[in-house]
Amino acid sequence: MNENDVKPDGGPVLGTRGMSLRDWFAGLAMQGILSCETYEEPEDEDDFDRTVHNFGGMRDHAFEAYSYADAMMAEREKGEADA
Question: Whole-model pTM?
Answer without folding.
Answer: 0.63
